[in-house]
Specification:
Length: about 160
């Protein structure tokens, strides 16, 4: 065996070992861990201002655990503290039903692409069946503005 062949095999073996190591690390990292979620916060806060109106905490005071608890509550339709398969898929079923215009339980390409066809038609302002660069630019997805920095008071 030539020197170049051996070096190629060594590199391939090293790559395989790296991939296996990453897969093993991913396995251990993704194992089910018990997660405790806080109960969803009450819509009316316990504190109130001088007028007696309930004070709602600012958005920056909402913790990731609070957000996750709210998300769980939105999915958990039967309020048993768990999200079943049907509860989890309910939003997808609603989205599918909106696309399934003829209600036959199947999506044809025309049903699937209806929103895209409408978007193309709106962008094709001259009606020639093609999008010039300026027309195509109107189809770009709208980007969300990055979240503003909520920095502590530096005084």
């Amino acid at each position: 065996m030539q020197q170049g062949d051996r070096q190629g095999w060594r590199q391939a073996a090293a790559a395989v070992l790296v991939v296996l190591g990453l897969l093993g690390a991913g396995f251990f990292w993704s194992r089910d861990q018990p997660v405790a979620f806080a109960a969803p916060p009450s819509p009316v806060a316990a504190d109130s201002d001088d007028d007696g109106d309930a004070m709602v905490p600012p958005v920056s005071d909402v913790t990731p655990a609070d957000r996750e608890a709210r998300r769980l509550a939105r999915y958990d339709r039967d309020a048993d503290g768990k999200v079943g398969r049907e509860e989890y898929l309910a939003s997808r079923r609603k989205a599918f039903a909106r696309l399934d215009k003829d209600g036959d339980g199947r999506l044809g390409f025309d049903e699937y692409a209806a929103a895209t066809v409408k978007k193309f038609s709106r962008a094709d302002t001259d009606g020639d069946g093609t999008l010039a660069a300026a027309e195509f630019a109107t189809t770009a997805p709208k980007r969300r503005a990055p979240a503003a920095c909520v920095c502590g008071d530096k005084s």
